[in-house]
Amino acid sequence: MPSIVSVGEVMLELSAIQANGSAHLGVGGDTGNTAVYLSRLLGDPGSVSYLTRLGQGPFAEQISDFLSAEDVTVSPFASAKAGTPGLYAISTDDEGERSFTYWRTSAAVRELFEGDLGKEEVAFAQQHDALYVSGITLAVLSDDGRVALFELAEWFQKHGRTVMYDVNHRPHLWSSHSHEVDFVAANLEMIKRSSIVKIGRDEGEALFELSMSEDVATFVCEKGAAGVVVTDGPDGLFVRFDSKLEAVDFPAISKVVDSTAAGDSFSAGFLNAYLAGLNPAECARAGQDLAGRVIQFPGAIIPKSEMP
Known about the structure:
Layout: E1 4-7, E2 11-15, E3 24-28, H1 30-42, E4 48-51, H2 58-69, E5 72-74, E6 87-92, E7 98-103, H3 118-125, E8 130-134, H4 135-140, H5 143-158, E9 162-166, H6 171-177, H7 183-191, E10 196-200, H8 201-208, H9 213-222, E11 227-231, E12 237-241, E13 244-248, H10 262-275, H11 280-294
Parallel strand pairs: 1-4, 1-8, 2-6, 4-5, 8-9, 9-10, 10-11
Antiparallel strand pairs: 2-3, 6-7, 11-12, 12-13
């Protein structure tokens, strides 16, 4: 059974917000969501780990307890330093499309890979067979932390292990952290160290000024990624592995309640199938099967009983 370490930020989540101001307090965050779904799919306690910094206090403990209950191993350094986790709220329109409001400026995860714990965090990650990160992971880290992550991905690559990168581009997050970071260059640094890159067609246009999915797929592979998945919402996607470009279509989902974690769950389904040896189109369908179920429920994490 392969072991996977997901790296990034997991936060407190306010969802199902009512007119009277009440809301459900849960846990979410892109790479954290993927870790939970991977753990459920693999069904092997301890096979999925989460590398982050949560800080200390009851809310950090709530997040850690949630991940542990999902059989995700939280890094032993997550609460070693003082600080707090971030918070976000989900708002959805009548068609299930979501928007977010964040409170994360001083989140403890911004210091991941820094200080005296940095080397231990790297060593913890290196115990795994696969590494999963996202563009949000890149954006929340400091400059030094980002360099450390690039070096970690390169180490995985050199040792014949799998690196999956979900571009998950959030321009406002980059600008809120540092106006001087070249996020296009940062994405390219991660892409060239990746076995699998997942990128939306719209993200390819925003980052690389390429409007066609086929062009995005070709560009990303030319920059060093071994394989790429280019998604385009309900219009299907393209996969390009071993220089072979293939279109993959899916049946439409008739009812979308909340599209939160659609991409995160897709990544989990895809990576799980990839590590099991399925071909890229089969991996894409596995990802879509899970994502199609997730968007029929509110919030990032659906009940275990509703897993496909």
